[in-house]
Amino acid sequence: MAGRTVLVTGASDGIGAETARALAARGATVHVTGRSADKLRPVAEAVGTEPLIADFSRLDDVRRLAAQVGERVETLDVLMNNAGGTFAPAAKTRDGHEPNFQINHLAPYLLTNLLRPQLTAAGQSLVVNTSSVGNLMGKIVLDDLDYEHRRAFEFPAYGTGKLMNIVFTRGIAQRWSDDGVVSVAVHPGPVGSSFGRDSWLVGLAYRSPLKRWATISVPDGAAPLIALAERGPDPEVNGRYFDRFKADGRERRQASDQAVIDGLWERSAALVELS
Question: Does the UniProt entry include the keyword Secreted (predicted)?
Answer without folding.
Answer: no
